[in-house]
Amino acid sequence: MRAVAVFPAKREVRMIDHPEPEIASPGQAKMRVLDVGVCGTDREIISFHYGTPPEGYEYLIIGHESLSEVVEVGPGASKVKPGDLVVMTVRRPCPDPRCIACRKGRQDFCYTGGFTERGIKQQHGFMTEFVVEEEGYLNVVPSELRDVAVLVEPLTIAEKSLEQLWMVQQRLPWISAAGPDQPPGAGHRAIVLGAGPVGLLGAMALSIAGFEVTVYSRSRTHDEKNDIVSAIGARYIAAETHSPEEMAKIAGPIDVVYEAVGASAVAFEVIKHLGPNGVFIFTGVPGRKGPIEVDTDYIMQDVVLCNQVILGSVNAPPHCFQAAIRDLGRFVREWPAAVRALITARYPLDQALEPLAIDAGGIKNVVAVAS
Ligand code: BGC
Ligand code: ZN
Fold first, then answer.
1. Closest CA to 31 of 139, 107, 115, 117
2. Cα–Cα nearest to 206, from 271, 256, 277
3. Residue to mutate, 36, 41, 121, ligand 1, most ligand atoms under 8 Å from C-beta
4. Whose CA is nearest to atom 2 of ligand 1?
């Protein structure tokens, strides 16, 4: 079968012929891949900054944001059946018996670094025609979400971040202050840094959670992003015309920052404007561009005197995939056009290298492997 693979040692990315996988243990299922989303992580991998082939291979099949259809199940699989649409989780546990995170199925918090990730670290990914996986890593998606379910994985980043946020803010009377029939973010202000897919999906999740949301972004396509942000009832501020300070003045005291740009300079500028008891959530992985000047005394003073929390979040467990599937359904009901506008274009597998190009414009580009 065809697959898009990166050969890090040879610095090559190309279509390869890879053996079609078959079910090898009773709890597995075999899937036909439908859609694969392309993200910044894939671009880092095909530029050879990131990504590791599985042991014994000189190449890694890329792709970790997926939607596929079950075509066959092993005799021990009871959660899925042929015809089901599924989204697969990305990370698999490390083998260390002392890793309490992985042993509890929370490899998103792996201590050892020995975890693997499909399409990223030592496990082949989904940009190919068929995949086989243990059914425990599959999340069933309702068929109404067929067109947009490739957005589930990038939305899980916001779902895990929000879960962390609720845990942290249990220290405050947030929930009771919002009132019993109010969503938990009601009365609070959130800033989203970046208007890529992770940022815009995060803005939708924060908006559904009741926050007053402002998206702050640098972009070549402000109009398109502004339309989506306005449709979800949020405010859009362009970074080219407003400094972080001006943005913070307009947005008001900031309770939460959801960082989705992967650029540390702007993130550390915005940290200075975090409000009392605020939480700053980092989700982006910046490329190393060399040191920058940061006003550390100012930031440290505020973190202490204002009870602030700076928190990083990576990857997501199955229950955050379930939450993402539920919330994506809500987004589609509330803002159908805005959700559809997140998907810029679909490319056939043979043209998969086009959306992987660094300058591929738009929001989310998708490789449509099968229909
Ligand atoms: C993926 C995560 C993964 C992370 C680090 C992200 O693009 O969405 O699942 O853990 O990269 O490899
Ligand atoms: Zn581990």
1. 139
2. 256
3. 41
4. 315
The residue behind tokens 């890879």 is 18
Only one residue has tokens 């359904």, namely 329
Which of 119-133, 162-176, 181-195 is the least confident region? 162-176
Looking at ligand 1, which residue's alpha carbon is closest to its atom 10?
A: 315
Q: Which of 58, 9, 190, 42 is nearest to 125 (CA)?
A: 42
**Nearest alpha carbon to residue 165 among 281, 332, 330, 69:** 281
| Whether residue 177 has pLDDT greater than 80 | no
- Residue nearest atom 11 of ligand 1, based on CA coordinates: 41
Which of 8, 45, 39, 197 lies closest to 120 in space, CA to CA? 45
Confidence of residue 176 (pLDDT cuts 50, 70, 90): low
Do the bridges between strand 122-123 and strand 116-118 make them parallel or antiparallel, or are there none, so unpaired?
parallel
- CA of 39, closest atom in ligand 1: 7
